[in-house]
């Protein structure tokens, strides 16, 4: 089909769902699933580097996750701090630039310092930008962007909002993957998902491996991205390209 997306995605975003179920099925505490989730994230980062995908954005802690049991919330904060201490050196050597996206004021000073330090240590890297959405919500992002414009007295236009969003440093995601079998967005990238292709995997996040990533990328390549146009409008552009190439 001439109109299929032939290039792979430049920006993949993932809702890493299913850690709790992975653990519960093994009679383990939920935090064991999140620890396994960090290993799965490491594997996914390496896979994206191998596949020359320049941007990966993951949902690690939502604005709503504060409502989870206190021990799970504190466990996730601890896991974040530990993972940074353990993983930053290998992220640096693999050329990964780490960016944290979300509301930081609510986080402890120790966590905030960890985030700032990790960003500083990886700031010079450009092979892969890894955005970790932490204490993030799509509605929070739209509201904070609007607040910025209002405080500067700027007109609220699409372009101005776009520039004020927390993910303004990367293009919108081409492909959003959600693992764990649920088919919803859950307040992730509400603004940026306008034209993203969606892929839902039944695999739980700790089980999401290279083959599952390739399946998602393969499904993406088979999609026709029309951005509001018709199929017929897209076809001549592809034909012209083919003729020029030939
Ligand atoms: C959703 O699974 C997952 C989370 C809320 C946390 C995701 C975190 C990681 C993958 C680890 C990386 C995190 C850090 C701190 C860097 P769930 O708990 O909702 O699973 P369930 O739907 O099976 O209950």
Give a written overview of the molecule.
By secondary structure, this protein is an alpha/beta fold. It has a single domain (11-222), classed as Undecaprenyl pyrophosphate synthetase. The chain is built from eight helices and six strands; from the N terminus they run βααβαβαβααββαα. Strands 3-4-2-1-5-6 form a six-stranded parallel sheet, sandwiched between helices. Strand 3 (96-101), helix 4 (109-122) and strand 4 form a beta-alpha-beta unit. Helix 3 runs parallel beside helix 4 (109-122) and helix 5 (138-152) packs across helix 6 (158-164). 34% of the residues are buried. Residues 239-246 have low confidence and may be disordered. Residues 16-21, 34, 37-38, 41, 60, 65, 76, 79-80, 83, 180, 205 line the site of farnesyl diphosphate.
Sum this structure up briefly.
With 246 residues, this protein is α/β, with parallel strands linked by helices. The chain has helices spanning 19-24, 30-50, 70-93, 109-122, 138-152, 158-164, 210-221, 231-245; strands at 11-15, 55-62, 96-101, 128-136, 175-178, 197-200. The two termini are 18 Å apart.
Q: How many DSSP helices?
A: 8
What is the name of the CATH superfamily? Decaprenyl diphosphate synthase-like
Question: Mind summarizing the main beta sheet?
Answer: 6 strands, parallel
What is the average of the pLDDT values?
93
**Strand order in the sheet with the most strands:** 3-4-2-1-5-6
By CATH, the architecture is named 3-Layer(aba) Sandwich
The SSE order reads: EHHEHEHEHHEEHH
Would you state the CATH class? Alpha Beta
CATH topology: Undecaprenyl pyrophosphate synthetase
Number of domains: 1
Number of strands: 6
Rg: 19 Å
Termini distance?
18 Å
Structural class: alpha/beta
Q: Could you estimate the helical fraction of the residues in percent? A: 40-55%
Q: Give the ligands present.
A: farnesyl diphosphate
| General shape | globular
């Amino acid at each position: 089909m001439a109109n299929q997306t032939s290039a792979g995605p430049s920006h993949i975003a993932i809702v890493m769902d299913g850690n709790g179920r992975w653990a519960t099925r093994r009679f383990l505490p939920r935090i064991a699933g999140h620890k396994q989730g960090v290993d799965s994230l490491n594997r996914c980062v390496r896979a994206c580097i191998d596949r020359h995908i320049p941007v990966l954005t993951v949902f690690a802690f939502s604005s709503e996750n504060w409502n989870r049991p206190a021990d799970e919330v504190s466990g996730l904060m601890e896991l974040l701090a530990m993972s940074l201490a353990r993983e930053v050196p290998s992220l640096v050597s693999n050329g990964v630039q780490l960016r944290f996206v979300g509301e930081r004021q609510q986080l402890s000073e120790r966590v905030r310092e960890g985030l700032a330090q990790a960003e500083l240590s990886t700031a010079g890297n450009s092979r892969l930008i890894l955005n970790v959405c932490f204490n993030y919500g799509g509605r929070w992002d739209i509201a904070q962007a609007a607040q910025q414009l209002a405080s500067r007295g700027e007109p609220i236009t699409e372009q101005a909002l776009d520039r004020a969003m927390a993910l303004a440093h990367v293009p919108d995601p081409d492909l959003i993957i959600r693992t764990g079998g649920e088919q919803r967005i859950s307040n992730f990238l509400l603004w940026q998902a306008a034209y993203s292709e969606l892929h839902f995997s039944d695999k739980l996040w700790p089980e999401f491996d290279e083959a599952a990533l390739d399946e998602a990328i393969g499904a993406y390549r088979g999609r026709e991205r029309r951005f509001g146009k018709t199929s017929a409008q897209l076809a001549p552009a592809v034909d012209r390209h083919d003729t020029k190439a030939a």
